TrEMBL record:
This is Agmatine deiminase family protein. It comes from Thermomonas carbonis. Keywords: Hydrolase. Pfam families: PAD_porph. InterPro entries: Peptidyl-Arg-deiminase_porph. One of its GO terms (molecular function) is protein-arginine deiminase activity. The keyword ATP-binding does not apply. GO terms for biological process: putrescine biosynthetic process.
C-alpha cells in the first residue's frame, strides 16, 4: 500500500458533481416530468456552490436539458454537458471512485477506480453503465487518464470514508455481491484497493423499497472523522424499528482510531411513503434522510414533503455547523428506490 495514496472524504474540496440527465429511454420514463423537476432543483442547488457535469444520451437530450435549466435561471457557466451512453442515472454506483495520489492539495494526481457495476447483483441491465467510467475518461472529462479496472463488483453507495483511512460499509450488501468471500477476505480487498487502515462493518439496517441490499449511504454516513449521521426510527410500531434500533446500537459501539466513541446524529423518521400500483397493490418506498449530498459549503438533503424534513435539516445543521443546509425535493426519486446521493458522484478538486 502506498502511503501517499488516499481516498478522500466527501466533505473535502470538490471540482464538480457528476450526474446523468433522465430521459424517456431510462426507467424514469413513466414519471419523467416529476423526476425532471427534481433534477432541475438539484442542478440549481449545486451550481450555487460549484460546477456540475451532466451526462446526456444524445444531442436532443442535451438541447432539452439546457432549455429546461436556462428557463429555471440556472447558472449555465457552471454546467458542462458530456454525451455518453448510460442505462440509468444512478451515478453513485456506476461513476468513478477517485483516489488522490499525492496527498497534497497543490499538484494532486488522481486515480480512477473502475469497479464492475452489475446492476446491483444482476437485478437490472447495466451493460452501458458498467462502461461509463471508461467512456468518460476517453471523452477527456477528467484531468487524468489513470484508470484502474478492477474485476470486483462494488458500488459507490456501498461505502463511505472519513478520508483518514476508515471505511464504513454493510455486511448485507457486500455479502450479497460476493457470497463466497469471508468478511476477512472482503476487508482485505476493500482496505487494499481503497487504501484504508480499517473497515467498520454494520450487520443491521435495511430499508423497505431499497433494492441495493442495504447500501450504507441510505443508513449511516461520516460527518467528520469523529462523527456519524444515521437514519433512526422512533416508531415502535414501524416494521423498521427493531433493525434500525440494532443498527443504532452497533454504531454507538464503534470507536474512532483514537478509541473514542463517535459523536452521533440520529436523523428523524419520515411517515411511510407508499406507491400504489394500477392494480391497487402498495409498496413502501425508502425515504431516507441519510442519502444527503455534501458539496462545497453546503449539504444538499432530500426532502419528501414530510414534517420531518425540517427536523432532518436541523440535525444536519448540527452535524455540519459550517455548511448551509439546502432541501431538494426528492419524493419522485424514491419511486425508483433511490434518492439524492444515489444519483450523484462528487469529483475532487482538480479532477475536472
Amino acid at each position: 500500500m502506498q502511503d501517499n495514496v488516499r481516498f478522500p472524504a466527501e466533505w473535502e474540496p470538490q471540482a464538480a458533481i457528476l450526474i446523468a440527465w433522465p430521459n424517456a429511454d431510462t426507467d424514469w420514463a413513466e414519471r419523467l416530468a416529476g423526476v425532471e423537476e427534481t433534477y432541475i432543483a438539484l442542478v440549481a442547488a449545486i451550481t450555487r456552490f460549484q460546477r456540475v457535469v451532466i451526462c446526456v444520451a444524445d444531442d436532443d437530450v442535451e438541447t432539452y436539458a439546457e432549455m429546461r435549466l436556462r428557463s429555471n435561471r440556472v447558472d449555465m457557466d457552471r454546467v458542462r454537458f458530456v454525451t455518453v451512453p448510460y442505462d440509468d442515472t444512478w451515478l453513485r454506483d456506476s461513476g468513478p471512485i477517485t483516489l488522490i495520489e499525492s496527498g497534497l492539495r497543490d499538484g494532486d494526481d488522481f486515480r480512477l477506480l473502475d469497479f464492475r457495476f452489475t446492476g446491483w447483483g444482476g437485478k437490472f441491465d447495466a451493460s452501458d453503465d458498467d462502461q461509463l467510467v471508461q467512456r468518460l475518461t476517453d471523452s477527456q472529462v477528467f484531468s487524468t487518464q489513470a484508470r484502474d479496472t478492477i474485476d470486483f463488483a462494488l458500488e459507490g453507495g456501498a461505502i463511505d470514508t472519513d478520508g483518514d483511512g476508515t471505511l464504513l460499509t454493510t455486511w448485507q450488501c457486500l455479502h450479497e455481491r460476493h457470497p463466497d468471500a469471508s468478511r476477512e477476505e472482503l476487508t482485505g480487498k476493500l482496505a487494499g484497493w481503497l487504501h484504508q487502515d480499517r473497515v467498520l462493518w454494520l450487520d443491521h439496517g435495511a430499508l423497505e423499497g431499497d433494492d441495493t441490499d442495504a447500501h450504507i449511504d441510505t443508513l449511516a454516513r461520516f460527518a467528520a472523522r469523529d462523527a456519524i449521521v444515521f437514519q433512526a426510527c422512533d416508531d415502535p410500531a414501524d416494521s423498521h424499528y427493531a433493525d434500525l434500533k440494532a443498527m443504532a446500537d452497533e454504531i454507538a459501539a464503534l470507536r474512532t482510531k483514537q478509541g473514542q466513541p463517535y459523536r452521533l446524529f440520529p436523523l428523524p423518521w419520515a411517515k411511510p411513503v407508499l406507491d400504489v400500483a394500477a392494480d391497487g397493490s402498495e409498496r413502501r418506498l425508502a425515504a431516507s434522510y441519510a442519502n444527503f449530498l455534501i458539496v462545497n459549503g453546503a449539504v444538499l438533503m432530500p426532502a419528501y414533503g414530510d414534517e420531518a424534513d425540517d427536523v432532518a435539516a436541523a440535525v444536519l445543521a448540527d452535524a455540519f455547523p459550517h455548511r448551509e443546509i439546502v432541501q431538494v425535493p426528492c419524493r419522485p426519486l424514491i419511486w425508483q428506490n433511490g434518492s439524492l446521493h444515489c444519483i450523484t458522484m462528487q469529483l475532487p478538486e482538480g479532477l475536472v
